[in-house]
Amino acid sequence: MTKDVVTLTKKMPDPLSVIAGLLSGGPDKLVGAEGEGAVVQLCDEQGRPLVSVEAPLLVQVRGEAQRLLGAQEPEVPYWWTEARATTGVEEGERLAGTFAARLATVVGGTAWPPQAARSLAVVETDGISVAPQPAAAQPAVDVLTDKVAVVIQDRPVVAMTAWLADAFRAVANARLGLQIVTPAGTRLSPAVRAALPGWPSRWVVQDEKDGYYDGLSGAVLEWNNGLFVTVESPEATPEDPRTPVAESFTRDVADTGERQLAISYRAIHPADDRLVLGGALEAVWREITGEPPAGWGTEEPANLPWSLRQLTDVAYERAPEPTWLVVVGTPERPGLATVRISRTTGGVEEDVTLAFGYGPGEEIPTDAVPRAAETLATRHDLQSMLVQVRRARRDLSVPPRFEGPGVPYAFVLGAEEVRELPGDRARRTPLATAPRELGPRTRPALYYAFPGDASDLSGWQDFERLMRHLKGDRAT
């Protein structure tokens, strides 16, 4: 059942409009605030939340509502207001839907999903009890145990919203796992996929035949002792667990012709007050697409137009704490990057995971990869870079089915890392072709190319041999 409702309006929802929406439970319901006023809640008489409303977000990036909700959006800029109903309240969805309907009527706009916002009538809530603390203290968390926090999401794409980002931080501080439960048709944003930590965190997909399965591995799951765990086969042994795999995970895995160009790299910049961050990412984006990124933000939807100065200012304001960012492209050329900026003993590090999507018949511009690599190596303090080609969706979202691994296309070792390796080890590789030098001959970075395409997994064998060689493993 849908618990999240989003209202898209051209005008900013003013306080009176929000209050009108919050009175969807009747005038006797109480209003409270959390997160220093960033979250407003409709509460029962005991002060327990029925509906939580996030502060409106001004979206100035085209295509985000379509990407994350599959909804038609107003022309940018527009305001995005999210309401989340408390799980366990039968009328929760109706409360959130009526809030959205009233807000859209008063301010002027539309609501998602459309069927959730059809009534302006007061929702009867007398005698309703809600989830007790501490689960209700975190609006995104639906179930809390001593092992995990469970978040239930019924959206086309689970995005790194402010709600979910808060849940990630809360479970990290509490040293718990985060388990995201979705229906079968839901996909993950790459930002959420990249942020999911290891066990016991996982993506749990509801399935008619197998009950639940892991959306990333396909392992059949069950709720046991306060968390979702893999189902053990009767024939399992410690050496061979024989974990059952859901049929839905391996169904419909034929090649659609869609591809992704995936790039991950790390740059380490000398700490300097004049340092401008994000330039490396913009340089790669321009080489691959011919234009800069469309927008960025500290959550999804990405709401700010691309700006190196604003991005840098946010990172400086948050230092010495790390900064996490999401960067997006246009609907015409899907692109998404997650960026983590942190201050270390080595300087200021930028860790970037980036992907561009291509449909059947669209050519992947692999010829731009060496140029992008040289730009990073010579102008942006590149440490290392890995480029892959994947059989995966053009829209970059992660479906709950098998997509297969990417195939290495190229690896780049930064000039400083080449210089630190003993002798000529970096140049004397086990690959069939010698590496290409990037930058000045006195201090070059090295570009290693791998043969093959998205169906040739032998590239991983070459990549592993190269990594062992660079580390000095004599087995190579």
Provide a descriptive summary of the structure in words:
It is a single chain. This protein has eleven helices and 26 strands. By secondary structure, it is α+β, with helices and mostly antiparallel strands. The strands form four sheets. Strands 19-18-20-21-22-17-23-24-26-25 form a ten-stranded antiparallel β-sheet. Strands 1, 2, 3, 4, 5, 6 and 7 form a seven-stranded antiparallel β-sheet that branches. A seven-stranded mixed β-sheet has the order 8-9-11-13-14-15-16. A hairpin with a 3-residue loop joins strand 8 (143-144) and strand 9. The longest helix has 17 residues, at 92-108. It is globular.
Summarize the structure.
This protein has 476 residues and is of the alpha+beta class. The protein is built from eleven helices and 26 strands.
Salient structural properties:
alpha+beta, 11 helices, 476 residues, seven-stranded antiparallel beta sheet, ten-stranded antiparallel beta sheet, globular, 26 strands
Could you outline the blueprint of secondary structure elements for this entry?
Layout: E1 4-9, H1 15-22, E2 30-34, E3 39-43, E4 49-54, E5 57-59, H2 64-69, E6 78-85, H3 92-108, E7 109-112, E8 143-144, E9 148-152, E10 157-158, H4 162-174, E11 177-182, E12 187-188, H5 190-195, E13 202-207, E14 211-214, E15 220-223, E16 228-230, H6 247-250, E17 259-269, H7 279-289, E18 295-297, E19 304-305, H8 308-318, E20 323-328, E21 335-344, E22 347-358, H9 369-379, E23 382-391, E24 407-413, H10 415-420, E25 436-438, E26 445-449, H11 458-470
Parallel strand pairs: 9-11, 10-12, 11-13
Antiparallel strand pairs: 1-6, 1-7, 2-3, 3-4, 4-6, 5-6, 8-9, 13-14, 14-15, 15-16, 17-22, 17-23, 18-19, 18-20, 20-21, 21-22, 23-24, 24-26, 25-26
Helix pairs in contact: 1-3, 7-9
